[in-house]
Amino acid sequence: MFLRQAAANLIKRRFRLPSRTVSSTSGTTTIPLSSRTKFSYQYHGPKDFSWRMNYSHRDPRVWLFLSGNAAIIFAIHSNTVLAKDVSIESSAENDTEGAEAMGLRKIEDGSVISNIHTSKWRVFTDKGRDLFLQGKLEEAEKLFLLALQEAKEGFGERDPHVASACNNLAELYRVNKAYNKAEPLYLDAISILEESFGPEDIRVGSAFHNLGQFYIVQRKLEEARVCYERALKIKARVLGLNHTDYADTMYHLGMVLHLQGKGKDSEALIQDSIRILEDGGQGESIMCVKRMRYLAQIYMKSNRLEEAEKVQRKILHIMELTKGWNSLDTVITAEGLALILQSSGSLKEAEELLERCLDARKTLLPEDHIQIGANMLHIARVAMLNSNQLKKVDTSKAICELEKARDILNESIRIAQSSLDKSMRQNRKIHSYGASGDIGKNFRVALVILLQAFDALGLLAITKQELEESKDECLPNSEAENALLRCISTYKEFVTEMSIAEFPEVKAEYLKCLKHLLSLNGKSTTQTSQQSTRVNLQDLRDEIKRLELQLSPSRNRKI
To answer: pTM, whole model, 2 decimals?
Structure first.
């Protein structure tokens, strides 16, 4: 309860919403937005690969497409919702009040007999929605433009149905990343709703929530924060502090504050949004689990491993109860807990969990699925950490752990290589039609795993040489050098083939490999050893500097 009150107080303190005048499709409109614009373009820095559930805030198609005798409706949740023939009681009165003024005849159920323009609006909206869902965006755009025009002529320039049409078209432009076209439409929709229902109406609050989602996609964090705060204030007044829709906006505001580096306020909001769901009997819902995952990630990034472990154990308990171990969702959750335990030094439990995950994946997935290769990579890393702990106690056991890790890494490499080859064959088959997004994503995952496995194999060879107390430490470790050179050649081969060099997670793994190779060869001090290496150290340094510049925080901030 304290956190809830603190969150409410936070919103009260922060609400200072100066007006901002913008040019929109209906003229100059003044709406309460921040007058200061801040831009933050960020990305996740290089981290060990782990699977995540596909809960993304980057596709917030949250307004309803309307059809039939529909009053304007705005979805409150952040999930994608497409409307059917629906209406809302709170807006039906507003619709019928203006009917006579527009020359439309009312009937007993409160709906309005259509004129030619409103009929066309319904048809264009329905057809545009269907085309949108089919991915035919160019055709859908033409129909949504026609629907907007018919709504204006049939209902009036400032009618809520026009706000609906504006929003539908704005959503299409957002999906097409035509942000400069989408924003004025979103703002027009809000302006019309404020005129129709008042600035504190729940539909206005939902519209501001949606606009916040639009800004988050563009990494306009300050604008998103202002929109979410406005939405939260309205929802608090209309719905109350214990409503799940209030908690939804609270969670999204918490995400924005986290990305802005305001950790304390962010955590209070996210924790309270989780608590509201739990108090409402939704503690095991997908929505609640999603928020707990995000909270665990925050704890991990700030190295608060004990708190992260506690949250992740809670999530795993929910997944075991609701889905069992015959679900990949449970496996992925358990793997996440294992990685946290690995980071905190609880290697035995981490290894046991990863082994159980591997057994489950071998049952649920094809033999050479990339998730199996990733799982093996995690197990190999735990074995290498075990070896590091054993080297001061029993060298022979430490070497045995390294040999075990080497065998597992080689199998992980085989699976990742197989997955890459398969993706390349598929890419060549569809090349004339353009690359598939799914293939590109799967390819990047497999490539990251392969680069990490080669890099780990190189480090393993170095560690093994140290344990075996090589007599000639000046000479480069050929086994380690071979692994690192394979990492580099793999990057150059596949990145050229698939044109994915722009993805930072791939570049980050390549950079780590280059640094390890430079360190390995930099230890060579004699002229003979320098001549024996197969790399040019100056070329390595130049490549490292180039990549560091590309991945520097000044050019790419963490998301």
So the answer is: 0.73
